[in-house]
Amino acid sequence: MKKAFILILLSLWAGFPGLAKIEEKSSNAKLRLPWEVLQDVLKLDAKNVRLTWDEYKALLRLTAPKNIPEITRLGGDVIMSREEFTRLVQSLVPPAPSSVEATVSKGSYRGKLVGSSAVFTGFLRVDVPRRPLQPLLVDLFPGTVAFQEIKLNDRPALAQVLNGRLHVTVAEAGSHTVELRFSVPVPESNATQSLTIPIARTPLTEWILEIPEKNLDITVTPALHRELSTDSKGTRVRSLLSPSNYVTTAWNPLAPDTAKGPAQLYAEVDHLISIHDDSLRIKSRLSLDVLQNTINSFTLDLPEGFSVLDVKGETVKEWQEIPGKKAALLIPLRTARKGPMNFVVEMERILAGEKTTTTFTGLSVRGSVRQRGHIGVELDSDAELPAPVTENLEPKRSVP
User: Fold this and answer.
1) Domain ranges, residue 329
2) What are the pLDDT digits (tens) for 147-180?
3) Which one, out of 6, 91, 249, 359, has a CA that is 20 to 30 A from the CA of 20?
4) 3-state secondary structure of 238
5) Residues 231-252 pLDDT 10s
6) 42 has which bridge partners?
7) DSSP designation for 233
8) CATH number of residue 202's parent domain
């Protein structure tokens, strides 16, 4: 009876014509019965279907019907109409999806700067829960780096690059270790050094990079934990990363290199003077270009009578005004920097009365080799603005 039940399920699930093709599909079958004989044996034309109680309970578990079909008990068996039976079979719950064949659960990378390249060794743990019926082609790593060696469990791996991704063939179940040795070029830069490389996205990722320079500040994105250490060989950073497809490492010296001599500063400073009813507001944009060496601070000579409201810049630490005959503004940087940098300084001067004459001498970058820029004036009140008196400037009027 159970064999008949299984054949009936297959017939209703795949359609009756499937049975008629048994002889065609199975050329090795030794038993060949005419369709009429099979139909008579399985009683496919009967109005009712008879099942054992265990078969009926198993059918209910597989179908999980909202409405329990009407049945009749006879001699311990269950009898139901063919319509109800067909309705149940057609609502069979699909089987749960099979578990993932392979996962990359951990990544560990260790790299070192060598000349104009960064050389890395990466270890990836690949878990295969059960032995595959045929070897798995595991999508493992971006194929956009220069591979030097690829190993699987300390042996040369069967690997290939497909659609820009590195795939490794794994044939056995268990935990496997893939070792990758590769290199990437380090972009040239006269400012902050930065390196971005693709990695495998894993739940656990350790990132270590050694740079043969001392006294560096190194940032890693996206790092959730960072450790910096320095020895005679240079600076080392170890980070734990959140899951990501890329990692970016940037580094800066913490102090200028005294052996290189003084830095050369070239400055461009643009001022916008806003005239209000009771004050003057100045917004100055500074573009510095530092050559020959790095700097970790610079000083601005302030115009007389103005107070600093704010200093903005991505590397600015706590700035401070320095009192004296010539007021100055000291702007320290988080790390020693070289190359182009941009800052904004906002200042204010309170006007003493309705009719006031104010002298504005601009901001000067102390020690700069060359400085140039522009000054603009805007009226943000109902006051009248006579033509300003200028020295060492070339006035320009906007054309309406």
Assistant:
1) 260-379
2) 999 999 999 999 999 999 999 999 999 999 999 9
3) 91
4) strand
5) 888 999 999 999 999 999 998 8
6) none
7) T
8) 2.60.40.1730
